[in-house]
Write a structure and sequence with these properties.
The N terminus is likely disordered. This protein has a ten-stranded mixed sheet, sandwiched between helices. With 415 residues, the chain is α/β, with parallel strands linked by helices. β2 and β3 form a beta hairpin. Bound molecules: 2-acetamido-2-deoxy-beta-D-glucopyranose. The site of 2-acetamido-2-deoxy-beta-D-glucopyranose has 4 residues, from loops. 2-acetamido-2-deoxy-beta-D-glucopyranose binds next to loops. Keywords: Hydrolase, Lignin degradation, Serine esterase, Signal. Belongs to the carbohydrate esterase 15 (CE15) family.
Amino acid sequence: MHPTTSTLLLLLLAISGLALAAPGTTLPRQAAACPAATTTTTTYEAVDNKGLPDPWKFANGNPVATADDFLCRQAEMSKMLQQFELGDLPPPPDSLTATMSGSSSMSLTIKVGSNTKTISVSITKPPGSNAAGGPAMIGVGGVSIPVPAALGRITFGNDACAAQSNPASHGSGWFFDLHGKAHSAGATLAWAWCVGRIIDGLEKLGPAKTGIDPARLGVSGCSRNGKGAFMVGAFEKRIALTVPQESGSGGAACWRISDSEKDKGQNIQTARQIVRENAWFSPKFTTYVNKTTSLPADHHFLAALVAPRGLLVLENDIDWLGPVSTTACMKAGRSIYEALGVKGNMGFSLVGGHGHCSFPSSDNANLLSFINRFLVGTGTANEVEQTTAKDAALEMSSWVGGWSAQPKITLPAAA
Ligand SMILES: *[C@@H]1O[C@H](CO)[C@@H](O)[C@H](O)[C@H]1NC(C)=O
């Protein structure tokens, strides 16, 4: 190579290295919201739809063709999920103050109306982080994926925010102490709100105090907490990378597909079962659990809500989690990323033959590539779409065959 060219190349690499190290500059963000002029309605009708709801059509039948349309359709999907299954996501609190006590504990005092709660959050700073702070992974109930030592860690004690003991535990936890015991939110959506307060605290204190750059946060959790991690990523737009692990039904699976698998004799968790097991969903959901074809939103919309941010969905082949349902549902989700021109920002990996929530080492490189791309800001994410579920069982055409033609949408770069 000509010396001048190689010098230039080195210079370019050095410059891009600097740019990548600057917080947030090159990572896909979702700063834009639905323009107020086209804000969606507040309540939606039930539908009668065997296939998965069409992401490319508004509830009123209008097509989703432009970037603004998509941002407004995301707002609609969010409201539909809240209305039918998750309960209402409250606005930010009236006030929040944050202090660090020592180097590994953040204390938050949160006020909603006349209710006040003080909670503490355990933080492990990224080693050697400077004033700009480093990336961190928030673990819903702890982190059970192998996270590089260079990342910080935040343990989100989700049970204390909203309990998950049984259906009757709805209403217990600091979310409900603030919003009232009768609040409609199911535990998984309440967790999304509570994680938002942790991010508020990190933003208020700043990276010099916490060691963490709030623009470089991931979220992960497994099984029930994987359902939670997916909800956190879908409803908290400040999360840069979402990694739900073995979230199964209630997470990466679609309700309709899980019901269809159940009808075929699979031992799979369904909507009907899940509301009897726990308080993960809103009491509102009970009305629809025996007729999931009436839901205007299904869980491929969770992927649509995370888009275009980083999303790596990890699954297992355990029957109860619904391997066919998670694969087909997330294939549908990935087609939404594809329409946005960022298919690679979402990965799906279903590797079987290991214990529930034990991370398979064959996924190490995929996970690392997503963490590097979306949290560290280096390299490219691996193209990840693998599953042991058989193509024939997926019946994709019956799930998405009725959709409008896939548009080509370019989302504006975040501010
Ligand atoms: C759903 O079906 C189950 C069993 O078939 C029944 O016990 C339950 O009451 C039904 N729920 C609703 C809301 O109709």
